[in-house]
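Reopening this ticket.

The earlier resolution said the output was attached, but the attachment link was broken on my side. Pasting everything inline this time so it's all in one place.
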Amino acid sequence: MAEQKDFADIKLELLSLDDAEQLLTFELENKGWFETYIPPRDQEFYSNEGVQTHIEHFLLEYKCHQLLPLIIKTSIGTIAGRLNFTNVDLRKGTAHVGYRVGKAFTRKGIAKRALARGMFVLKERGIKRIFAYAEVNNMASQKVLTSNGFTKVRVVEDYGKLHGQSIDCIEYTCVLKNANRLFL
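Inline output:
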């Protein structure tokens, strides 16, 4: 396991095919952890070809300005998580955010710092409002959102299914102040 100092700073990078091998390892190592909070991925994802196809799909959506797929890396270049801004609408100035952090990287402020940096990037691109959803029992995710200025909008009952059970989520929103339209 990496030393604590390796988590002192993180960086966000655009998802790249160069990340495929390390991303597959990260996803396999955290598969069980992630599946306690989100529905499992299709089994085809968990192969070199599956991850490469996933990355290519995300990069196509990125080129169409619909998605900003980011990798969260530690100061030594280890993948610690992912941060995806989806449903990006430059005309309306809105986007949705989802993130996941590997189990070994929890409780270190990585998700909080990554989201803050990602929000800055979106603000620079002209996004004015971000939406997020957190499962009602996922207090850690709720804390990450509220510490970054998100406010609760409402509880969405039956938001989805997890392990055959209906789950409720809290919808959050955050208004990015002084957003300007710089398309980077």
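Reporter confirms the inline version is readable. The radius of gyration is 16 Å. The helical segments are 20-29, 31-35, 48-63, 110-124, 139-147.
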